[in-house]
Amino acid sequence: MTRRYQLGLIFALAVLVFVVGLGRRDIIASHEARVAQTAREMAESGWPWGAAAVWVRPLYVVRPQGMVRLEPREGEPPIAVNPWMIPIFNGQVRLQKPPLPYWCAAIVFRIAGETPWGARIVPAVMGLVATFLMYDLARLLMGRRAAWAAGMVWVSSYFVPQEYRKAMADPYLAFFTLGCVWGWVKGSGVGGQGSGGEGLRVRGQGLGKYVLLFYVSLLGGLLAKGPVIFVHLGIALGAFHFFYRRRVPGRVGVHLIGVLVVLGLGLPWPVYVLRNVPGAVELWRYESVGELADNVENAREWWFYWPDLLFLAVPWTPVWLAGLGWPRVRRRRRLWFPVAWYLLTVVFFSFSNLKKDAYLLPVMPAMVLMVTQVIVGMTAWTRRRRRGWAEVLWKVQGALVVVLAAVLVFLLIVKGPDRGTIREFLKFFRHFHAGSFESSAGNIAAAVVAVVVAVAAVVLERSGGVRLRLAGLAGAYAVLFAMLVQFYMTPKDNGNSPRPLAAAMVREASAPGCTLFDLNLPDPVRFYLPRGVKYDPGARCVIVAVENRKRKSLPAVFQGRMESVERVVPNESAEADDLAIFRVRLNPPGASPTNSPSASP
Fold this sequence. Notes:
- The protein is α+β, with helices and mostly antiparallel strands.
- The chain folds into three domains: 294 residues, no CATH class; 108 residues, no CATH class; 88 residues, no CATH class.
- 56% of the residues lie in helices and 7% in strands.
- It contains 22 helices and ten strands.
- It has a four-stranded mixed sheet, with helices on one face. A two-stranded antiparallel sheet has the order 1-4.
- The longest helix has 30 residues.
- The termini are far apart.
- 42% of the residues are buried.
């Protein structure tokens, strides 16, 4: 398999897992909705240089129950802001995250319309481009064979495309972190020869441009998620210099230019915010350093990440486990670089109060390098007929293809709202009967394709050369992931979509004398509401969406005025938030409620 075909196959798989079907799934999660809705506010104000001002009330720092928030102060007059400079989310200033993800989504919205695809396409393309940064980083550190393996592992690791297909700040941070590491290593003049990285050599002059790319990526990371990128880079580059014993790349002048680029392009936005939003410094401190100190909102135990590491490496978990001890087996100092990068990052973020798996996305290149080191060694040992445990690992990975294909087939063809759970999976084999199958021809066809892919991967794993063996396994993993997303996850998520609920609310609110109560709505519902829908405090018929588990307490603003409460849309399509729509008829202000029902509908 020539290098051209290798790159072509990697590119095709990257397009499949990162880009295909990106807009078919509706936005149902709050973290995506907040990015999309903020970008929507920007886009609808016009382009930045001619944006219509939005009136908002100035915010001040408050500490309700020990948590820091920016909230409006009663009696303060509103101020006019440019949504591109001061992000706006549902009529409030949103400064919890820097603006780059909002800017990117808003630009796409202006050009291609306000859709889930528009909110996700930039991080998805970043994931695709990161495939080739990963390819070249592995080539620099371990040679061409490792480059091919790293590219295939990157596109077939489930956690990587799963996160890059979301409209969040974490994919931006992960992409720019990888760009920084790649630019720094490339600028150091490292060139790998062999799986151990031996025979390092300086590749000549003209490396300063890669150091400048490091600073450009650093700027992007700062504008995407703030100073947390310094933590990731400090660990990654510190481990690189310790184990590779390289000097700082580039001349002093190159670094000065890079610093000026970062300061010149990165400082204007925070300076503008500090001059126009009181209390911004306190909120930024709470969202960054505060996560290690006083920010205990959604805090998790210190060990939260460690069990999840097995999931983050799927489907390469067996090889990743071997990678933890691989440097000890080969007795090469440089092989400890990705292991130290990975483990030290996990240790650091274990001390953070707020923990999410997405926070570890920037360290996934280290996981890929760990797996790549073992694959290159397994390949070399297999060629020398020294099979041993290396052959056992290949067999385990081949068996995993069969297991994943079987799980996918089960998810696609078995009926029931609980399909997909381990309990139901086991119950299916205990109580097999014809009525257990879905009738969808599309699902059955997809299940057949999954079986064919698994069989092809096993055949290549057993009889193909080492490159075809890796291509079969990684290609099968990538195809199974794409099928899982397109034929199972997307229909399931769309079944919980808030889009029908938002349409029903607008339809009910269009009746004469009715208004839509748009306060305290879940974020995904807001994204699907048309712009310009506002609550009319004077209306006596109000359409309200309330979570079923909290419906005993309709908004307090209605208490004492309710004449009747009627559930008009028993929404069955928004199970994620378990919402239902109610029509609340109110007595005139100041009138005594003669027939006021209980607060419980």
